[in-house]
Amino acid sequence: MNDPTATFSRLRPRLQGIAYRMLGSSAEAEEVVQDAWLRWHESPHDSLDSSEAWLVTITTRLAIDRLRSAKVQREHYIGTWLPEPLMSDSPVSPEQLLERADDVSVAFLTLLERLAPEARAAFLLREVFDADYGEVAEALGKTESACRQIVHRARTQLQDERPRHIVPREAQLRLLRGFADAAATGQFATLKTLLAEDAQLVGDGGGIVPSFGVPLMGNQRIAQLYLASHLKYGDAVRFEVVVLNGQWGLLRFIHGALESAQSFETDGERILRVHAQRNPEKLVRIAAALGRNLAVTNPQP
Fold first, then answer.
1. Quick one: DSSP state of residue 282?
2. I need a labelling partner for 109 at 20 to 30 A (CA). Which of 249, 275, 282, 296 fits?
3. Alpha-carbon distances of 71 from 23, 68, 75, 86, rounded to whole Å
4. Does 27 share its domain with 131?
5. What's the domain range around 34?
6. In this predicted model, what pLDDT tens digit does every residue of 9-57 receive, in sequence order?
7. Taken in order 86, 92, 98, 102, is the CA torsion positive or negative?
């Protein structure tokens, strides 16, 4: 408490984690955390029982307000909205990879879009950040009983579609490498085999680049799209395996420029769903981290 700046710095990763999972946008999450810092800096600290509880409450409430505005904007979003992907170094162990993938994956964040802002906050605080119901109640300004009901309803709403497959790191990596090699060399039969028969491809172009308004269904059609890209661009297409939101994913480059960040849901043997983030505004941070340009030409998928 004697050093508010040090206290905030220590808690910043937790606050950033809450805000990002609430909003699905790193830039918006940073703005929320910055607003929380300003309020923290301007507030007296001597009377606080817990600086962490105070900061979590402020960050959560700011994120709820921001998400309410964002949901109105997303209702008018062109095409499918997907979260901004985060790229990181590979975790040091399979256990860490699975732990991170469970609560920050693109699939999970996309699923959370179904929840109202307060329900999303309550669910995340309780299920992901292990807050007790007293802390959840404080953050939401509701009773513990009400928060229990909110979390229960959110859990029920999501349970049928939460990813059920816990795939070992090595199996997921092997599958994606095989898929990347087949896509880069135009091996249609292999692509089709690696995709589940009822696989889906969900694309986000944000109205800036071409994408699909609805998910593309079936391994035949998805494999044809990857093949078409190879036929059009040949060796100019390159894939790189990276960690996106705690899971192995692919970056696709056209003529050396970043074109998309692709996240995958798999059962360890087949790819069940592809989330292809193609909106340049959501790829800026990854491109900057790699020192690469964004692709001007944006093929499907």
1. G
2. 296
3. 10, 5, 6, 21
4. yes
5. 4-76+106-159
6. 999 999 999 999 999 999 999 999 999 999 998 887 776 778 899 999 9
7. negative
Q: Is the pLDDT of residue 115 over 80?
A: yes
Asked if 150 and 122 count as a contact pair (C-beta separation under 8 A), the reply is: yes
Measuring CA to CA, which residue among 29, 104, 86 is closest to residue 277? 86
Cα–Cα distance measured from residue 20 to residue 294, given in angstroms and rounded to the nearest whole number: 23
Q: Give me 261's structure tokens.
A: 């960040």
pLDDT in tens, 56-111: 999 999 999 999 999 888 888 888 999 999 998 654 444 444 444 457 889 999 99
Would residue 212 count as lying in a domain?
yes
Report the DSSP beta bridge partners of residue 265: 273
- Answer whether residue 93 is part of any domain: no
Amino acid (one-letter) located at 175: L
Q: Mean pLDDT across the chain, nearest whole number?
A: 89
CATH number at residue 66: 1.20.140.160
- Residues 202 and 215 sit within 8 Å (Cβ to Cβ): yes
How far from each other are the two terminal CA atoms of the chain, in whole angstroms?
51
187 and 42 co-located in one domain: no
Instruction: Please tell me the distance from the alpha carbon of residue 182 to that of residue 145, in angstroms, as a whole number.
Output: 53
C-alpha angle 240-100-258 in degrees, rounded to nearest 5: 25
Q: Return the SS3 of 212.
A: coil
The set of residues, in sequence order, having a beta carbon less than 8 Å from that of 221 and lying 6+ positions away, is none
The two three-digit tokens of residue 150, written as one number: 């909110």
Percent share of the chain, pLDDT over 90: 72
Total number of domains constituting the chain: 2
What pLDDT does 93 receive? 46
Residue 222 amino acid letter: I
Cα-flanking dihedrals φ and ψ of residue 164, to 5°?
Answer: -100, -10
Mean pLDDT of 119-136: 95
Residues 161/166/171/172 CA torsion (nearest 10 deg)? 40
DSSP 147: H
Q: For CA atoms 175, 176, 181, 182, give the dihedral sign.
A: positive
